[in-house]
Amino acid sequence: MDSWVRFNTQSQAKERVLAAQYACMLLGYTLQKSSVATDLQRTISELEAHMSLTRKVLRLGNSVEALQAAKTTIHLSDSVLRLCLTIGHLNRAMYFACDNVLWAGKIGIISKLDQQKWNHRSFYYLFALILNVTRDVYELYLLLDCEDCCRSTKSSLSTSPSSAIPADQLSSSSSTSSIEVTATPAVMWVWLRKRMHQIGTVLYNNPPLLLDLLKNGCDIFIPLDKLGIYQTGPGFVGSCGLLSSVLSIITMLHPWLKLKP
């Protein structure tokens, strides 16, 4: 019950509930493929448009929140995190500001607004998502590096100081080196498999990083499709948006799953 109260009182959570817009997009795409009555398709399309407009209303003021977040992250000690998070928040602020202007144009507050031009606001969103993915990869790199250091420390402690290589093994170094040269592809494949397993283990043991990486990976297809850089269609975009919204709701219900800072 406490989780639901916390979820219900957050404006961002309400916005994520309205990501049923993506569910409507996915449903409309499915109905179109199954040749259902056009009246039902038109109803779903109108519902999606209304939800999109409602989301824009709930985004009023998000630019200020993004600027406040940028003022906080600019003081981080890690230079990579400081750069990625601060510039990402600034791009989100620009995106939300443009979104507010577009909303004002759609309801008639601003007349003669070039909506096609303002639709390019998705460039800000795309750049912010690229920085978010970069931050996730950097966090993953730090965790992998930490695990490698722990493993090397344990192996060095377990190795006996008196364990030296016998002379007969030293004499066969030339033959061993030739074997290693021929076995390089196999060795690389084994190393790659071990590395992928290590990455999977690290992500499994760090759910906040895993969820954030999945969410950003889903989100990034939305501006790519909208800008025409990589078009995937309404079905795929609707699925990605819906999955991203579900992941956001999970992090709101369980704050410990939110990646910090």
UniProtKB/TrEMBL annotation:
Name the source's superkingdom: Eukaryota
Q: List the record's Gene Ontology CC terms alphabetically.
A: peroxisomal membrane
Q: Does the keyword Transmembrane helix apply?
A: yes
Record keyword Transmembrane present:
yes
Q: Where is the signal peptide?
A: none
Question: Where would you find the membrane-spanning parts of this chain?
Answer: 236-257
A Pfam family this chain is assigned to: PEX11
PANTHER family xref list: PEROXISOMAL BIOGENESIS FACTOR 11 (PTHR12652), PEROXISOMAL MEMBRANE PROTEIN 11B (PTHR12652:SF7)
Q: What is this protein called?
A: Peroxisomal biogenesis factor 11 beta
Give the species.
Poecilia reticulata (Guppy)
